[in-house]
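Tutorial, part two.
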Amino acid sequence: TRQSLKLLNHFNIKKPLFSYHQHNEQGKSDEIVSKLELGKNYTNENKYYIKNIDASFSPPINSIQLSEEEKNMIIEQTGFFKDDFYTDSLFINERMRISCLVGYMEKEGENLNSFIDSLRNMKEDKSVKKFTEEYFIINGKKNIQFQLNIDNAAFWFYAIFESKNGYYLILNYTFTITYFEDSLAVIANSLNSITF
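Running the prediction step on this input gives:
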């Protein structure tokens, strides 16, 4: 794997790699078969347009967009930051158990600071086993990312981007530990597809 990675990097080819050899073939064989059965193509050509903030992105591959009624029911039942930002849509991939919430808020006021403070305060919750906050530039756009490990069973991943027209784009991906590596690849492709 190390030599393959050097070769791929030399030719600027970015593809996921994993090791497979005689010492790990027992465990890796099942994983390879599972990936083939799921048809692991992480790219998604379907773009979702968020008209109020003039942005688009590719939701997680093989996900479905919930109806407005289903989305509102989930937001109402969970109370999921409903006072901090507007939830535009919710996508779910049932097979990989990954969801993607798409929201936005206006730049005016203290909503962003309040929302970020709420996220930072979550690290005090005993169910949060790991909390990270990092800043990145993706496709020339600055963003802040939060990752929360919930009881070593699920992950919450937030990315907040500043758009051109007075709004912040908020993406929340939730996924289980079972599909950790696959989910991260799906999320990376989704984040890299964002255009303003």
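Residues 36-43 have pLDDT under 50 and may be disordered. In part three we will examine how such features are distributed along the chain.
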